[in-house]
Amino acid sequence: MQESGSDELSLFLTQRGYILSLWGLMYLLLMKGEMYGRFKEICYEKT
């Protein structure tokens, strides 16, 4: 039981780290998208 429990914990931690890195990438993309959207709005306002 102890070994399987530690294996599950390590698997959970690796999965969690993977998900956290994915969230970080999505967050960066959203920030870039927001900046791009504002840039487009400014461009449209100028024309």
List the helices and strands and how they pair.
Blueprint: H1 2-46
Sum up the overall morphology in one term.
rod-shaped
Helix content: over 70%
Number of strands: 0
SS element count, helices: 1
Strand composition percent: under 5%
Q: Distance N terminus to C terminus?
A: 68 Å
Mean pLDDT: 85
Question: For the CA atoms, what is the radius of gyration?
Answer: 20 Å
Uncertain parts: none
Number of domains: 1
In N-to-C order, the SSE pattern is: H
Major pleated sheet: none
- Overall structural class, as computed from helix and strand content, comes to mainly alpha
Task: Explain what you see.
The longest helix is centred in the middle third of the chain and has 45 residues. This protein is mainly α and 47 residues long. The protein has one domain. The model has no long low-confidence stretch (mean pLDDT 85). It contains one helix and no strands.
Quick rundown:
With 47 residues, this protein is mainly α.
Question: What labels describe this entry?
Answer:
mainly alpha; single chain
